[in-house]
Amino acid sequence: MAYNEHLAERVRQRLKGKAVVEEKKMMGGLTFMCNGKMCLGVLIDKKSNEDRLMVRVGKLNYEELLQQSDSMPMDFTGKPLRGFLFITPNGFDMESHLDYWVIKALEFNVLLSEQ
To answer: InterPro entries in the record, alphabetically (predicted)?
Structure first.
């Protein structure tokens, strides 16, 4: 499992007290399950060797959030998984940028939990 432990710790700190969080090693990295649902993940892209943040944002906001400069479709198999984004390092290097993506993931996670 390849992921940046420093990035994982930054995500952990932001999730503290916001949800029931469980960490699982999956999808080639570390996934944060919030309230029993996949929410965020950290991994290293095998092709570029860059850190990636995986954010589950749902289908409603997907197209809008995909337009942000540092986001891209999450694609492991050649077919993008709608509702999930990869964020490149420029999109989470600054603390405020990481805060933004964690908030987006938690907003969708709340919607899932209410269903």
So the answer is: TfoX_N
Q: Which amino acid, one-letter code, is at 109? A: N
When pLDDT is averaged across residues 14-38 and rounded to a whole number, the result is: 93
* CA–CA separation, 103 and 115 (whole Å): 19
Work out whether the CA dihedral 12, 7, 106, 85 comes out positive or negative. negative
CA distances from 76 to 22, 84, 86, 95, 100 (A): 23, 11, 11, 27, 24
pLDDT higher than 70, residue 23:
yes
